[in-house]
Amino acid sequence: MTDFSTPTATFLGSGTSTGVPLIGCDCAVCASTDPRDRRLRSGLWVRGAGYSLLIDTATDFRQQALREKIPRVDAILMTHFHADHVFGLDDLRRFNTVQGERIAVYASPECVAVLETIFAYFKGTATPGAYLPQIDFVTVTQPFALGPFAVTPLPVIHGGDPTWGYKLECQGRALAYIPDCAEIPDATAALLHGIDTLILDALRPRPHRSHLTTEQSIAAIQSLHAKRGLLTHIGHDLSHADIERRCPPHIAPAYDGLCITF
Fold first, then answer.
1. What is the pTM of this model?
2. Which helix (H) or strand (E) holds 113?
3. Structurally, how many domains does the chain consist of?
4. Cα 132 to chain center, whole Å?
5. pLDDT tens across 25-70, in order?
6. Buried b (16+ CB within 10 A) or exposed e, 161-175
7. Alpha carbon distance 41, 85 (integer Å)
8. 261 lies in a domain?
């Protein structure tokens, strides 16, 4: 049985938008036999004090939910509206059935506006008996409480689309999750200084216009004096073992299924 008492986070996926292995690729990482190199699209499952929270619902969410045996979902935080972070949202209809209740999705005003367009059929009534997700999109702009968690949105730069990470505080511990990021603005950095756990985008070694490189992510974690850093949203350029060798002792690459306490 899943223990929801201690603030805990599980990486549902640790990969970039293509997942790893990539379709049609036979590079060393895509062909790797190390299970940590098999990376589904990024998402995080957080629980504490009996509450179950998702950050993003990746394209692979159904597979991830079955693997982790997620028993319920009380709410969802969305970082942004890109396909790899939201296209698993339809699978929440099964949790509606299991729980017998609607589920709220919290996001920025810009993200909510796009989600209401993408998933307009959620409100459909034309087909009697249609099995539709029962979802309430909720716009947030300021810190708020969600179950046992104090939630602080963390605006970051990720290409041209509005993107957030989230800082979660529970039982005196704090975790921040920023899976898509090319730059951390000063105001957001101030909220992260000295944090217990910082989970940060680290796409690849080569520069990318909308993601941090492995080295940039490591440097950011160090400069913010995070007590522990974990790298996510990883492509197929480096194996898990290769990334480990680049990291100082308090920083490591995440992998699918990794479970941590705050």
1. 0.96
2. helix 109-118
3. 1
4. 24
5. 999 999 999 999 999 999 999 999 999 999 999 999 999 999 999 9
6. ebbbbbbbbbeebbb
7. 8
8. no
